[in-house]
Structures are given as C-alpha cells and as structure tokens.
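Quick one: co-fold with 6-O-phosphono-beta-D-galactopyranose.
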Amino acid sequence: MTEQSKFPKDFLWGSASAAYQVEGAWDEDGKGPSVWDEFVRIPGKTFKGTNGDLAVDHFHRYQEDIALMKEQGLKAYRFSVAWTRIFPEGRGEVNQAGLDFYIHLVDELIENGIEPVLTLYHWDLPQALQEEYQGWESRKVIEDFVNYAAVLFEAFRGKVHYWVSLNEQNIFIQMGYMLALHPPGVVDQKRMYQANHIANLANASVINKFHEMQMPGKIGPSFAYTPNYAIDSNPENVLAAENAEDLMAHYWMDVYAWGEYPIAIMKFLEKQGIAPTIEDGDMELLRSAKPDFMGVNYYQTATNAFNPIDGVGQGKMNTTGKKGSSEESGVPGMYKKVANPFVDRTNWDWEIDPTGIHIALRRITSRYRLPILITENGLGEYDKITADNEIHDDYRIKYLKDHVAAIGDAIEEGCDVLGYCTWSYTDLLSWLNGYQKRYGFVYVDQDETQEGSLKRYKKDSYYWYQRVITTNGANL
Ligand code: BGP
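Sure, here it is.
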C-alpha cells in the first residue's frame, strides 16, 4: 500500500558535491591554485596523502554524471564553483574558460530538468589571496568575495534559483584555525574568532549583494548543524548541553538569521581575550542581511556532559575508519562530548540519529522562522563492489530512509523544508578520509592509489532514491 506523501509537490529531491572533491583538472583551462591544492601536498595532512588533482574527474565526465542523474529522476543537483577557475588569483580578469565549464554544467542540468543549486564557496579559497593578505583574516576578502559572487550572479541570473553563500563556515573556520586540520593549518583561537567574524561580514555582504541585484531566486548559508543533547537530566549536564548549543550552533546561526552573537558566548570569549574585534558598522551590516533560507548540513547529533575548567580539551578525530578510534573531546569550562548510549555509530564514529534531523528542523523553525534547505545528509561507509559490479549498500538505504521519514514528520508539523540534498551524488574525495569513506548513489572506481578506472556503477541506493523521487517520498 502506498502511503500519502508528506512532501510538498515541488520538493527538491537532490544530491550534492563540491568542486574540490569531484572535479579534478586542478590546473586545467587556466585554473589557479586554491589553498587546498597546496595543503594536500603537506605530508601527513590527508589520509594516505590523497589529493583532488584528479578526484573523480567530474570536470571531464559531468555529462555522464548528469545523464545518471536524469535517469534517476533527480530534481536538484548542488555543486560548488571553484573560485580559482573564475579568478585564478582570486580577483582581476575573469578566466572565461573557467566560467565556461560552469555555464556548460548549468545548461546541461537545466536541459535535463535538474534544478542547479550553486554553492559559491566550499572551502577552496584562492591561494593567491591567502598569500597576499591571509585570506579570511583580512577584511580585504569581503570585497573580493562579493566581486567573485557578483560575476556568478550575473552569469546565472534566471538560470540558477538556489544559491548557497558559504558552506559550513563553522567547519572550515574551526578546522582551519583551531585544529589545523584544514588550511591554513593554524592553532590560534584569537585568530579563529577574528577570521570567523570576517567570514560573517563576507557572508552578509554577499547576501545583500544578491538582493540588491534583485536576483530571481533564493540565497542562504549552509550550516553544519549538530544538535546538542545532555547525557541526562543532571542540571549540570543540561547546562553543558546549552553551552554546546550556544557555542557550536547559535554562534553562527544567530548571526545568519538575526545578526547577533549569543550573549553568554561573547562574555566567555571576552574573558579569555579571544573575542573578535567588532568595528563600527559591523553589527549593522550583519543585521541588514536576510538569508532567504537556512541551509542545513546534518549528519549527527552530539551528547554532552559537564566539563570542569581544567577538564578535557580537543581530542583526535577518527579519519581512518577504525571504529572507536576517536578521542574524548570538549571545551574546558563549557562541555565535553560523551557517547550517546541510544544510537549506533558509523565506522568513523559518527552517531546515527534520524530523530536528530527532526529535532534540528524543529529547533531552526521555532528559533528563526526561516524556510530550510537541507543541503547535505548522508552516510560515509566502506562499500564493496561485487564481481557483477553491484553495490548492496542496504546500510545507506536504511540511513537515508530513516532520515527522510523524519523530515516528512517535521514537514507535517509545519517546518517549511524546500528540499533535501543527499551527500553525495557520486563517490568522491573525502577531505581528510581519502576515497574509502564513500557517500554516493553512484560508485566510482577510484581509491587511495588514485589510479582507479573512474568508471561509474549504480549502487542499490541509486534505485531506492529513484523510487522515493517518483513517489514524492510516499514510498520509502
Ligand atoms: C561536510 C562537507 C562535505 C563533506 C561531508 C562529509 O562537512 O561539507 O564537503 O565532506 O561533510 O564529511 P567527510 O568527508 O569528512 O566524511
């Protein structure tokens, strides 16, 4: 028996990627180097030294990939533009050959009835801007980012209706300036909060530019939201969860939606001398920018407990896929992360919690009253290809099915969800985890040797999503 669909008629059933993770062709057609092109060459930074020089060669195979999307019935494809294809040095003359790649990509999507969702920035900052003025640490980046975005706005006016400003600012800033796991590989919280403030100003400026240019369509940031729970009802643990939610979520989403930093967190940062310097006019700018939706990348929840001022700090992440290898982690005086006894974990120790996306959608709806575009959700796992070139990823189907069901429930309760992009469409390069952590509907023969045939194979989840799309989510 087919159930009734809980999803709106024009719901965007989509899937996502990012330039550096799929394109390859890292120096073709005049493309300049990005900070990732440099960072991956530092020994020990990525799993088995993988890089995106070739990735899954989407740059040369986008037509084949789009044909697979079309056959599957995909309604939307989220991709990012590599800034250094448009401006090899970050600014100056437009590199027409680089822009042409995206013009062809967008045209091909539209011809195949797929709505393009364009991410302006998915972490591949021009290396030239990093060298010239330290990238996100200088206010000069604001003008360069707006200028770059405006070129894309004009090029795709009327063709692209959904735009993502910054992808996971919370991740690239924290990984880049606190954990040194992403470029520029810095460990300095003062610099981190300053760079983050400047990224907020850049995000607000781009959103304002989009609206000033009267672009037809919608723009918003994509936030990596990990809803926080308390381990139990011990008030100290509940307060720790509140701290985590304020420090790790509201510190970004409140700025996007309202142009305000959470009060308790600003006090906390000021006490430690690491609060950002806020200049005249900054808060007015942040308040003036109104995103049309909140983009949400949801993978997991976090469970928290009390952490004393001399308690645990940052622990090591699991980037090897060896279950249980991640270390305890927290912010002294605020919270520490503990294992949730009620959920399962992936081999990379990410907690699997479909109810968490329901909670995420409810919280965002109640707090910000904004439409939500789910810009990423998915399961990174080892996949095995059989002798007949089949991939039986029933674990991924289960993960996605449970999350889609939870989204349906949130929609029924009144959350305005515009669409759902799984991460990812094809298998691709995971920044720190190489190729063995796979996410796609489409298996790509590529691995850490980076010598795979690059052939594409449909996984079982490909056919599952095809059915979901055909029934508009009624048949999961
Ligand atoms: C998000 C990023 C993606 C993607 C995904 C999966 O944070 O926006 O680019 O990589 O997470 O993460 P990972 O590759 O670390 O498993």
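If it helps, The mean pLDDT is 97.
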